[in-house]
Amino acid sequence: MLANAYTSTVHFARPLADTLGALDWLEARGRTHRTALWLRTLFEIYRVDGLVALDLCWWSFAAQDAVAAHLADRPDARVFEYGSGASTLWLARRAAEVHSVEHDLGWAEVMRGQLAHVSNATLHAVAPTTRGAGPCTAPSGRCGYADKDFSDYVRAIDAVPGQFDVIVVDGRARAACLEHARSRLAPGGILVFDDPHRARYRPAIAASGLEVTELRGLKPCLPYRDGTALLRRTACAQAPSDG
């Protein structure tokens, strides 16, 4: 309820802020002042065009800085992403190859338009199936998805051969995505896990066997501090088997 009220208020205020020149002023100041840039993003909540234009995605600023530095050292970097959005274009600007899987077929069509002129990004639309009487191997804890099985979505990474320098888990069934995809990290790779503080994700992160660094702080579009986790395989750890 509060989230909806906040979003509605921001969208209502945006035209006035634009007319008064506040958006341009904040954007100009944001080139050198992170707080001004964050304030500018508050007017772009759920507006993929706006975040793309600002060259931002919906992770903490600290996580964006870390991933950008990681990719800058890897000109041939390959990325696989669960959950498409502004991050897909942000990653495509910094990596050689991006694959993004999206469960929402309507949103996938929106993203196809965004990616129409992006040659190094491939969108994979994989909808969940309706659960039967048997066990569900890839459930989503998000409200409204109790009858859905995301097994095909989780396994979408299997259709893309090779290892990945970055894997992003920021869609549905995140615990299952983490467990299934972690073995596909290239040596020295990073797995980006957004919203790691949520209770339903904590057990999977703890059981991943990966070294976890949670980067909290300002986050685009949100009026409070939030976090994004970066997971890495330690030098002595063995890559897990999915078998």
Account of the protein in words:
There is one protein chain. Strand 1, helix 6 and strand 2 form a beta-alpha-beta unit. By secondary structure, this protein is α/β, with parallel strands linked by helices. The termini are far apart. It contains 10 helices and 9 strands. The radius of gyration is 18 Å and the shape is globular. The model has no long low-confidence stretch (mean pLDDT about 95). Strands 3-2-1-6-7-9-8 form a 7-stranded mixed beta sheet, sandwiched between helices. The longest helix has 18 residues.
Write the layout of secondary structure elements.
Layout: H1 2-19, H2 22-29, H3 34-41, H4 48-53, H5 61-72, E1 78-82, H6 86-92, E2 97-102, H7 105-114, E3 121-125, E4 129-130, E5 148-149, H8 151-154, E6 164-169, H9 174-181, E7 185-194, H10 202-206, E8 211-217, E9 226-232
Parallel strand pairs: 1-2, 1-6, 2-3, 6-7
Antiparallel strand pairs: 4-5, 7-9, 8-9
Helix pairs in contact: 2-3
- The helix content is 25-40%
Helix and strand element order: HHHHHEHEHEEEHEHEHEE
Q: Radius of gyration in whole Å, from Cα?
A: 18 Å
Determine the strand fraction and express it as a percent band.
Answer: 15-25%
Determine the mean pLDDT: 93
For the biggest β-sheet, the strand order reads 3-2-1-6-7-9-8
Are there runs of 5+ residues with pLDDT below 50, and where? none
| Strands, count | 9
Continuous helix count: 10
* Most strands sheet: 7 strands, mixed
What would the principal axes of the Cα set say about the shape? globular
Structural class: alpha/beta
Tell me the distance between the termini: 42 Å
